[in-house]
Design the sequence.
């Protein structure tokens, strides 16, 4: 019996030693393998990032009643501490008070609707930028663009199935806005005696005209609406650059070129949350933006997918001469965001975004179906290769049209409501989308309601 006890004792001591050795090995390897992700669980201790991480978490933890947010680079109090910046319609030190008679801005294209997704994915999407991060103008391989980010963009298009990127060049821009004009510059003629005409089909995104007029080049000028142009000009020898916005802002339609010449496909909204994706786009020059994909308009990041080498080189020259490339901090952040969006082949991200847009569309449809004075655009189902089902689009904007009555009545009605949307086409000084003046009131399209706002603005 005593012998038995002795063996038992020995066995226990030996097991304990083995377990301790294994545990020590586990801690040692676990700490090294984590890459220093956190201080807990035996992983390697943080050094320079700890203070920044604590600062970022502290400011994110400031309570603004879900109606505002405090930022590290935002407003501060008299002691220099960050304070809440309240969303539209909310006031007070913690943004808890609803301001009376507040108008929701239905005319802004700010895509904040994905904020809840990024709140849920705060851990995976956070980045920490040290003071030493990529101080050079260039990456190691002498490029202005991160190759890793470019590869992720190609992967994204291949998973979503919305654009062919194989054997295509990619150029990054400061938002797609910068690339829109870079593309006009690249496609417009240099040798012709008269400037190329930049055209778009009414109703079109106002920036095309604004940029073309502002940059006032001898190589291009704004020529207006494609159909009007076609009526007044011979289709031979046309020196035109046509913007094709698909899906279109403001009416959400999937568009094709009218003139069939040099085209810039603006695919800002060609993502599964706004439209079914029937096929990958394969045009010579396509422009995309992070703003409408993940909602990070503030990051200012867009990209062009280009077939022709000469056009690619011209666009790249424009970006380099205008800005010496794109912020490396932005590229790091975009890479992180895309990695999250690509998790599980993009299914959770696009499902979330689609459901949000669909719910908002359903709400608007139900409101406008009861109206005897206004209607919104009709939408049609299509097969979406990404979701592998036939479904309706959920456009970024509602394109509101009067059913009848005079435009004067409608303008009054909009201004007295809680929507801060100017009557765009009935009042030339406020015009934002190009549309002919609207003498027959039945054809006068009125307002463009952005569905990308925060929940409260949409409720209003
Ligand atoms: C059709 C279209 N293209 C481009 C842009 C500009 O996007 P970014 O934020 O990338 O400059 C917008 C913004 O509203 C848009 O509606």
Sequence:
């Amino acid at each position: 019996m005593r012998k038995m006890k002795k063996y038992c004792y020995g066995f226990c001591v030996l097991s304990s030693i083995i377990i301790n050795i294994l545990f020590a090995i586990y801690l040692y390897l676990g700490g090294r393998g984590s890459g220093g992700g956190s201080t807990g669980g035996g992983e390697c201790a943080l050094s320079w990032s700890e203070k920044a991480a604590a600062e970022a978490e502290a400011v994110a933890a400031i309570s603004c009643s879900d109606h505002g947010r405090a930022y590290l680079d935002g407003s501060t109090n008299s002691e220099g501490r960050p304070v809440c910046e309240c969303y539209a319609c909310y006031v007070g030190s913690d943004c808890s008070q609803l301001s009376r008679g507040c108008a929701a801005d239905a005319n802004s294209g700010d895509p904040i609707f994905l904020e809840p997704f990024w709140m849920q994915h705060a851990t995976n999407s956070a980045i920490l930028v040290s003071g030493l991060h990529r101080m050079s103008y260039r990456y190691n391989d002498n490029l202005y663009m991160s190759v890793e980010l470019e590869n992720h963009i190609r992967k994204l298009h291949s998973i979503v199935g919305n654009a062919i990127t194989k054997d295509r060049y990619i150029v990054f821009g400061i938002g797609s806005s910068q690339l829109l004009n870079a593309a006009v510059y690249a496609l417009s003629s240099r040798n012709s005696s008269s400037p190329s005409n930049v055209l778009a089909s009414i109703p079109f995104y106002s920036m095309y005209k604004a940029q073309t007029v502002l940059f006032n080049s001898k190589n291009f000028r704004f020529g207006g609406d494609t159909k009007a142009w076609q009526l007044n000009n011979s289709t031979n020898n046309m020196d035109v650059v046509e913007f094709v916005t698909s899906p279109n802002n403001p009416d959400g339609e999937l568009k094709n070129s009218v003139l069939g010449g040099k085209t810039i496909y603006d695919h800002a909204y060609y993502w599964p949350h706004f439209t079914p994706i029937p096929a990958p786009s394969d045009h010579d020059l396509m422009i995309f933006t992070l703003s409408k994909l993940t909602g990070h308009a503030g990051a200012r990041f867009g990209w062009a997918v280009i077939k022709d080498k000469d056009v690619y080189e011209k666009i790249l020259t424009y970006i380099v001469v205008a800005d010496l490339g794109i912020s490396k901090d932005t590229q790091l952040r975009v890479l992180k965001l895309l990695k999250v969006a690509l998790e599980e082949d993009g299914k959770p991200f696009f499902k979330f975004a689609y459901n949000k847009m669909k719910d908002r569309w359903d709400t608007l449809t139900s409101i406008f179906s009861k109206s005897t004075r206004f209607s919104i655009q009709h939408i049609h189902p299509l097969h979406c290769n990404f979701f592998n089902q036939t479904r309706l689009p959920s456009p970024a904007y509602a394109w509101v049209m009067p059913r009848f009555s005079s435009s004067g009545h409608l303008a009054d009605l909009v201004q007295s409501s809680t929507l801060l949307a100017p009557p765009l086409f009935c009042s030339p000084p406020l015009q934002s989308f190009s549309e002919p003046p609207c003498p027959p009131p039945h054809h006068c399209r009125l307002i463009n309601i952005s569905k990308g706002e925060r929940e409260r603005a949409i409720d209003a």
Q: What stands out?
A: The first helix runs from residue 2 to 33. The chain has 14 helices and 16 strands. The two ends are 83 Å apart (CA to CA). The pocket of pyridoxal-5'-phosphate is lined by residues 109, 175-177, 205, 245, 249, 266, 268, 289, 291, 297, 302 (CB under 6 Å).
